[in-house]
Amino acid sequence: MNNEKNTDNKKILITEEMIPIVSGNGEPKTIRIVADGHTARSFLLDRGWNSTKIVILFDKSHPLWGDYFTTKHFYFIEPGSMRWGHNEEMMKISNIIT
Fold this sequence. Notes:
Number of domains: 1
Structural class: mainly beta
Number of strands: 9
Helix content: under 10%
Distance between the termini: 21 Å
Strand content: over 45%
């Protein structure tokens, strides 16, 4: 199910550089996104001693991932297109500006 309601909003294709980085156990600063049609908040978690992870916190439970998605195996192949996991699955990520 698609959570996007207003088609008058402008989509901005997300790049890794646009996602806020949270270091250590700091308070997460997030960016509002739409990941494969599901609204969410996202940030990059950098603990220093481990690989940086992308964290996506869904507004409503996602049918595959539940309340959140996280992986350290990710990279953006172009704005709005993130490959993740060992099988290089694809996720479309955009930001909505109203």
